[in-house]
């Protein structure tokens, strides 16, 4: 019931122009709060709140840019509406999750295969949150996924990568040299470690930028 209600609310608000009005006439923080309120199936954790209200607004794509969302579940039903002035592509290996993609293009496949669907130098912003440790669990899977994402991103494009630290962290990623090397080897350089409240000690978000000069 909550799933159907969330989809209906977002559809109606988009169709009547309410979301566009809020996007243009309120601050981004207020707009995102309104989006969260419309999705009745959102994750209500403090980690997700920090991601959506603190991190995502820091790294908005340019107007008319292209956004890639890796993973497409009902709890992030509202994410494509964060980027009203951008083109949104979502990729997920489960066909059933097509139903939760109500704005933009939806691709049924694993993210490692994204170069089959998108051209090089195309994506401005990629959001890769809650996928590592929840399906992408080995180092080879993570490395190949990051390389594939790099191949479709523009030089200087931003990758937001979020994951748990204490649970669902098979490779023990975190603020360590191993993690930095995995990203560097795939062609990404660290921008900054996004600062989260101290009580969110099981959650890590990295913001990295695509290097344009990597040779394969």
Note down, in words, how this protein is organized:
By secondary structure, the chain is α/β, with parallel strands linked by helices. It has one domain (44-210): 3-Layer(aba) Sandwich (Rossmann fold). The protein has helices at residues 2-15, 18-25, 28-38, 46-55, 139-152, 177-185, and strands at residues 66-70, 87-92, 105-108, 123-129, 153-164, 188-193, 203-210. A 7-stranded mixed β-sheet has the order 3-2-1-4-5-7-6, with helices on both faces. Strand 4 (123-129), helix 5 (139-152) and strand 5 form a beta-alpha-beta unit. The longest helix has 14 residues, at 2-15. The protein starts with a helix and ends in a 6-residue tail after the last strand.
**What's the CATH topology label?**
Rossmann fold
Helix count, per DSSP? 6
Q: How do the strands of the widest beta sheet line up side by side?
A: 3-2-1-4-5-7-6
- Which residues form runs of ≥5 with pLDDT under 50? none
CATH homologous superfamily descriptor: Vaccinia Virus protein VP39
What structural class do the secondary elements suggest? alpha/beta
Shape: globular
Rg calc: 17 Å
The overall average pLDDT, rounded, is 88
CATH class: Alpha Beta
Terminal Cα span: 48 Å
Largest sheet: 7 strands, mixed
Question: What pattern of helices and strands is seen along the backbone?
Answer: HHHHEEEEHEHEE
Number of domains: 1
Helix content: 25-40%
- The CATH architecture comes to 3-Layer(aba) Sandwich
What percent of residues are in strands?
15-25%
């Amino acid at each position: 019931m909550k799933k159907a209600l969330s989809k209906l609310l977002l559809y109606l608000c988009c169709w009547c122009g309410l979301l566009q009005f809020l996007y243009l006439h309120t601050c981004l923080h207020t707009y995102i709060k309104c989006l969260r309120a419309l999705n009745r199936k959102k994750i209500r954790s403090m980690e997700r709140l920090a991601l959506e209200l603190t991190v995502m607004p820091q790294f908005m794509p340019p107007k008319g840019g292209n956004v890639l969302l890796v993973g497409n579940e009902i709890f992030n039903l509202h994410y494509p509406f964060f980027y009203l002035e951008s083109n949104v592509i979502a990729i997920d290996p489960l066909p059933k999750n097509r139903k939760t993609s109500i704005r933009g293009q939806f691709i049924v496949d694993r993210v490692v295969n994204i170069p089959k669907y998108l051209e090089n130098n195309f994506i401005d912003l990629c959001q890769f949150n809650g996928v590592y440790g929840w399906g992408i669990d080995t180092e080879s899977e993570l490395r190949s996924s990051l390389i594939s994402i790099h191949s479709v991103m523009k030089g200087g494009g931003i990758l937001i990568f979020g994951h748990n630290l204490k649970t669902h962290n098979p490779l023990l990623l975190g603020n360590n040299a191993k993690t930095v090397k995995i990203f560097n080897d795939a062609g990404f350089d660290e921008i900054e470690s996004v600062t989260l409240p101290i009580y969110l000690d099981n959650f890590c978000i990295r913001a990295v930028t695509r290097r344009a000069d990597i040779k394969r």
